[in-house]
Amino acid sequence: MIITSFPPIATTDAKVLIVGTMPGIQSLQLQQYYGNPRNHFWKILFTICQEEFTSDYEARKKILLSNQIALWDVLQACERLGSLDSAIAKEEPNDFNGFLYQHSDITHIYFNGQAAAKYFKKYISLERSYTLVTLPSTSPAHAGMSFEGKLSVWQELLENALP
Fold first, then answer.
1. Residue 6 has what DSSP assignment?
2. Residue partners of 11: CB distance under 8 A and separation at least 6
3. Which domains does the chain have, with CATH numbers?
4. Residue 72 pairs with which residues in a beta bridge?
5. How far is CA 5 from CA 35, 95, 142, 147, in A?
6. In the annotation, is 97 catalytic?
7. What is the pTM of this model?
8. Are 107 and 15 within 8 A, CB to CB?
């Protein structure tokens, strides 16, 4: 089954870009980044940004934008059954050089998990220098690390880049 990713969430003054791999089944059904309620992404971001957690997607997007955080997936399309990154085949990357040209204030790119970093490094040849950091995946499939463990690493590495 061919699936496609969402457009980026970003303002032109974004300083940080968080890159995932490809939306999972629940995210695609809801048409929301990190729509699986078991995914820790939003809880981690709200904690780091010191905001009260909400499941309202429009409020979630506003928190990203007000903290100068952009969000996108490395892949534009792929074939995949299920939600696991390991099932991805025939992948096509998004146009990151075009995106980064339009969002020239971005200095840090954070990968939500090893797969996002792997596909980014496989397909994207950056035209300028960025701080690239791979964070533990917030996916429920990454059950080897607790929420607290993920939060600690994300907080330590991401807080320094936020305005």
1. P
2. 65, 68, 70
3. 2-161 (3.40.470.10)
4. 19
5. 13, 12, 21, 25
6. no
7. 0.94
8. yes
